Structure to design on (370 residues):
């Protein structure tokens, strides 16, 4: 296996096709692993990110892709998409994952990069097991901790789909609020999948997201021009492949809730939702999600509605399964490894044993200065 390094994402149609073909070979393909996602990040965040793209070849064939980035000092590498993607991973078939992980670990040592931080790695990924075997071989100490549980609505047989539909339709709160909005005007769901259609909705979606967070005394990530540029770039790139779906809950001609989401490899993704604060009493966001789940039941090619990162209560209300993600730190520094290990376990002690809080906080302060 031969690695070729790039400090940018090449804008190359052949690479795009080969990269995305490898995504489809993965144990659980995700839109976050695609060429389009990496290119959108590189374009939107070029002022603050330096990509470190590793392309693995066997002869003339592309057999693996690892899209990383580095901090300004070159002290650590991390997934290029870590702040934008709900799942991040090394891209290749599961069978080749150990070889790819080993090659990347060796290359990071050759480059003199002492740290690797991998956020949002699916716990069931073959990468997790490969890292455990490769880290010690290349002089890295590895620390893994649980990150998120991503709730999902799993759709299986026709009978299971009908059961899920009935369960959603019979939830009293959803029925009550949909009925209340229907008294104002007819309620329907509008889907935008083309770039032209999305551009008509994206400004109103952004405005509603920013306003809702401001009303709650918080900052929306869409107040950041780079985040706005990223969502626009991503929509433009994914719409060409038919993988994006910007859904709106309509009350008459008025948009009252949105989901900037994706349909890819059997997954309908609930990625960035928001709603019009004027309709908050009617829970329009939850009503939109209920309608999406109902609609997914009618499409055999959709095997799950993925509710993504975050443990909001409304997700538990609908979920029938899910998957966990991990946060993995690999470092050549024993002191940094001990600090990471101690900080995590001290924080766990604080949560579980309140009487030990003072001791745990003291330990955190001591190790933070190492």
């Amino acid at each position: 296996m031969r690695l070729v390094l790039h400090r940018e994402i090449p804008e190359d149609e052949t690479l795009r096709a080969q990269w995305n073909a490898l995504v489809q070979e993965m144990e659980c393909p995700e839109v976050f692993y695609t060429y389009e996602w990496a290119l959108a990040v590189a374009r939107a965040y070029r002022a603050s990110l330096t990509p470190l793209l590793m392309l693995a070849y066997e002869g003339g064939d592309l057999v693996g892709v690892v899209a990383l980035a580095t901090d300004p000092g070159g002290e650590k590498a991390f997934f290029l998409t870590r702040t934008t993607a709900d799942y991040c991973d090394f891209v290749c078939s599961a069978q080749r994952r150990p070889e790819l992980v080993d090659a990347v670990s060796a290359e990071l040592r050759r480059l003199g990069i002492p740290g690797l931080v991998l956020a949002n790695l699916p716990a069931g990924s073959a990468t997790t097991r490969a890292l455990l075997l490769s880290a010690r071989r290349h002089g890295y100490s590895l620390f893994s901790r649980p990150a998120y549980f991503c709730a999902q609505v799993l759709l299986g047989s026709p009978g299971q789909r009908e059961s899920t539909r009935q369960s959603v339709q019979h939830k009293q709160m959803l029925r009550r609020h949909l009925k209340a909005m229907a008294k104002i005007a007819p309620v329907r769901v509008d889907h935008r999948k083309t770039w032209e259609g999305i551009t008509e909705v994206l400004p109103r979606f952004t405005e509603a997201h920013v306003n809702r967070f401001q009303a709650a005394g918080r900052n929306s990530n869409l107040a950041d021009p780079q985040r706005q540029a990223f969502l626009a770039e991503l929509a433009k790139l994914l719409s060409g492949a038919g993988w994006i779906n910007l859904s709106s809950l309509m009350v008459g001609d008025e948009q009252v809730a949105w989901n900037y989401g994706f349909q890819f490899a059997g997954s309908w993704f609930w990625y960035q939702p928001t709603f019009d604060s004027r309709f908050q009493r009617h829970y329009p966001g939850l009503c939109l999600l209920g309608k999406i789940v109902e609609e997914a039941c009618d499409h055999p090619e959709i095997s799950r509605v993925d509710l993504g990162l975050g443990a909001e209560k409304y997700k538990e209300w609908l979920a029938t399964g899910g998957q966990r993600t991990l946060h993995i730190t690999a470092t050549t520094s024993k002191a940094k490894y001990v600090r990471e290990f101690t900080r995590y376990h001290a924080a766990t002690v604080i949560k579980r044993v309140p009487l030990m809080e003072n001791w745990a906080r003291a330990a955190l302060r001591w190790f933070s200065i190492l």
Residues 156-302 form a domain with the Aminopeptidase fold (CATH 3.40.630.30).
